[in-house]
Specification:
Layout (H helix, E strand, L loop, with lengths): L12 E5 L9 E7 L6 E2 L4 E6 L4 E5 L4 E6 L6 E3 L3 E6 L7 H4 L11 H5 L38 H8 L15 H10 L17 H8 L36 H14 L4 E9 L1 H11 L11 H15 L5 E4 L4 E4 L5 E3 L1 E3 L2 E3 L2 E2 L7 H16 L5 H4 L4 E5 L18 E5 L3 E7 L2 E15 L5 H16 L3 H4 L2
Parallel strand pairs: 12-16, 16-17
Antiparallel strand pairs: 1-8, 2-4, 2-7, 3-6, 4-5, 6-8, 9-19, 10-11, 12-15, 13-14, 17-19, 18-19
Helix pairs in contact: 4-5, 4-6, 8-9, 8-11
Amino acid sequence: MTTMTDTSNAARFREFKMPDVGEGLTEAEILKWYVQPGDTVTDGQVVCEVETAKAAVELPIPFDGVVHELRFPEGTTVDVGQVIIAVDVAPGSGDPVAEVPEAAPAPEAAPAEAASEAPKGRQPVLVGYGVAESSTKRRARKGAETAPPAAAPAAVQAELNGQGTAAIPDARPLAKPPVRKLAKDLGIDLATVTPTGVGGVITREDVHAAATPSEPVAPSAPSEAPVVVEAEVPAQQGARETRIPVKGVRKAIAQAMVGSAFTAPHVTEFVTVDVTRTMKLVAELKEDKDMAGVRVNPLLIIAKALLVAIKRNPGVNAVWDEANQEIVQKHYVNLGIAAATPRGLIVPNIKDAHDQTLPQLAASLGELVATARDGKTSPAAMAGGTVTITNVGVFGVDTGTPILNPGESAILAVGAIKLQPWVHKGKVKPRQVTTLALSFDHRLIDGELGSKFLADIAAILEQPKRLITWA
């Protein structure tokens, strides 16, 4: 393609660049194109679906026109700031082939070339605020007018700054969410860390090096959980093994779980409880006209029981702030529900669940699960959780030792509800029984608080009338 020479035609073709759909993310994979060259698009129309380390997100185009070119095929991982689609906003006014700008450099292009493709202001996107002006990698702070190219090598940046670090004035250090969490936990300012990753990205090893610069950095400890893979790939006939790349949401899940397991000291307690009365309540609520139109199941009562138990034990609803050496007490409950999706296990949360009535909570649970199964959960829906429920019972599992969702201090695992022999009123009778497992951060939740909290949940499920007397 040739470069435009007529400035009168410069406004005819507009380019849409990969936005930052989640604060601080550096790349996204194009999962699916919804348009093809020649298709007419309108402002706000979704043109593609992309997957970041947080979620799958649909991207709307911010202008009208006719699609001229898709710069990347499906399955390609694209850096934030690279052009992904070119649109003719004035079709019929000339020869499009002679007027379209040259394609953006490929992902492996040199940093200086990538920096030349900086977006012209923030792009309107579905989630987040888009990429900042003057950089394809970093989002400049408000008020910043000029800054060195963020994608320049660390050595060049250090020379520009006149110091030994690669920090850039008025720019946010480039790092993925798990690395930011690690730096926060270790009390490390990312602006003082020298990046060694591709394109100036700060890695986990860089943070560890900043924390203990005199000692060699050990590789990250492996997770004890099974390796999570992206998708099943048919094995070639006769092959003894298949390698599947781990990326996107599932890669982020693995990193977050390793970070959580090796940062917070986990303690898990168990209790087996007779939930026969809870199951009777569920059956009655299904027939109640006030619950018409919403799904009623045991998880609804368990969620409500947890909310009541938090009210009685508010210290559970808190988080450890390593950087400031503080316990941050939350006076609201954003209730996370672990949901299995085709892209892996995600934990969206119900905002301000503590303020919801039982019918409202039922509606919120139903919407949350449906959105997750459709793969439409946004990064915002997964941010800010305070406590989580994971229902392993749906798989027929009795219990487990769940790992804390990063940024939270307690997670409740609910096992399968089964008919079992149970001593009831002095006699052995068949009763509906389940096992609950509570994992908590022992830095701020001691054994007494964790035990009381778990015991309260069990007591409510055994006698659901306590939802009223304890509320």
